[in-house]
Design goal:
single chain, mainly beta, six-stranded mixed sheet, four-stranded antiparallel sheet
Length: about 110
């Protein structure tokens, strides 16, 4: 049974920062590419950042230079450091594998508002 639990979201002002965490279980984490995805109201879910099993990263153009994805294989966890947040970053953020998706978790709400 694969479980993904996101946390760390909240309400922040434009320019603020948040650090999201994702705890996973039921997968061979160290051998899985992982990613962060987000879905804003009325929009499709989109990929935000990916990190391979070897640590290589890839980011959506909209977040490059502002977000950083990382992983801790010993903790079966993946993180997303979000800096210089913008209004358009408002969304529910989810973690999952980089492909062959497991069932989606509940996500964590990030709201950027002044």
């Amino acid at each position: 049974q694969v479980q993904l639990v996101e946390s760390g979201g909240g309400l922040v002002q434009p320019g603020g920062s948040l650090r999201l965490s994702c705890a996973s279980s039921g997968i061979i984490f160290s051998r899985s590419a992982m990613g962060w995805y987000r879905q804003a109201p009325g929009k499709q879910r989109e990929v935000v950042a990916l990190i391979s099993s070897g640590g290589s990263t890839n980011y959506a153009d909209s977040v490059k230079g502002r977000f950083t994805i990382s992983r801790d294989n010993a903790k079966n966890s993946v993180y997303l450091q979000m800096n210089s947040l913008k209004l358009e970053d408002t969304a529910v953020y989810y973690c999952n594998r980089g492909g062959a998706f497991a069932p989606w978790g509940q996500g964590t709400q990030v709201t950027v508002s002044s």
